[in-house]
Amino acid sequence: MKAQTRLAMRAYRDDDDFWAIRGFLRDVYLRNGRTEHSWQTARLDYWRWHGILNLGDGNLATDVFLWETPGGELAAVLNGEGRGFAFFQVDPRYRTEALEEEMLSVAEGHLVGVGKSTGRPFLCVSAQDQDTMRTALLARRGYARRADWQEIERKRDLSLPIASAPLPSGYSLRAMDDDDEDLERRSWASWRSFHPDEPNEKYEGGLWYRNIQRAPMYRRDLDLVIEAPSGEIAAFTTLWFDDVTRAICFEPVGTAPEHQRRGLAKAVIAEGMGRAKEIGALVATVGGGGESNPPAEPLYAGMFGREGISTTGWLKYLDGEGA
């Protein structure tokens, strides 16, 4: 059986590997029935063009490892996403406990981070709650499940009716304009949405958004914003369409604090689903909600369905001092 094929591990080499991994993730997503047991390609792009370039979350050359068959076919990929966090991407045809244990050992050797508040070396590995093989492996190796590091991965069939979500009076919905002024407004809305308790003096401007716009899947017609009567951007979402898997990802979704509880996020998601369906997407997906982001749970459950896959971080301190 192919699952018994002897695999060879190697480190990431060059950009050819990146493009090979993109195709590999597409194949794995389809083999898993459009279910996210591994990342979708859009998340890999988002990590490279936003996480790495804008946030400094890792490095392809040092944080990616590949497992190949004797014929050179990719069977599994291990990658980080911020120092101390490890993600397993595995072709279901080759998935075994022995492979995942080897991947875990490589992660412990190369992807360990140091806690900002604790100063302790740690590794956090993502595992789906129903994945008994991986969760048993992690428990046996001394990892502890962190319920507060949980999110729900949801998928909605776009053949189903899309909920109506009218805008409040005075608000308008549109795609991003291609100018620096709109980019700055969009960036400011993102800062207000995801850093509501940070002082405004920490805001560093919007040029970082140009990196996101260079990502291969970026489409300005799927970068949606809701403009307030004042002209500022009140809510937004970016959709990432994979025309191979015909899946679309919503990442991120946000509303500035002063515009919340007006149905804006629901409206921008509904518009995005409609646009996605028109260009041929079969499913719409979103991550978030769960214990790590409770405020988003009602929105995502209402728009994508209550059912989803619960994925949780498992944490281990590697200094031998316990939890």
Features:
single chain; 323 residues; alpha+beta; Aminopeptidase; 13-stranded mixed beta sheet; 9 helices; globular
CATH class of the largest domain: Alpha Beta
Examine the coordinates and then state which fold CATH places here, giving the name of the CATH topology of the largest domain.
Aminopeptidase
End-to-end gap: 40 Å
Question: Tally the helices: what do you get?
Answer: 9
Mean pLDDT: 95
Q: Quaternary status of these chains?
A: single chain
What is the approximate shape?
A: globular
Assign a percent range to the helix content: 25-40%
Q: Structural class of the secondary structure composition?
A: alpha+beta
Can you put this structure into words, describing what you see?
With 323 residues, this protein is an alpha+beta fold. Helix content is 31%, strand content 28%. The protein has 2 domains: 2-154 and 311-317, Aminopeptidase (3-Layer(aba) Sandwich), CATH 3.40.630; 172-281, Aminopeptidase (3-Layer(aba) Sandwich), CATH 3.40.630. Strands 1, 2, 3, 4, 5, 6, 7, 8, 9, 10, 11, 12 and 13 form a 13-stranded mixed beta sheet that branches. Strand 10 and strand 11 (247-255) form a beta hairpin. 38% of the residues are buried.
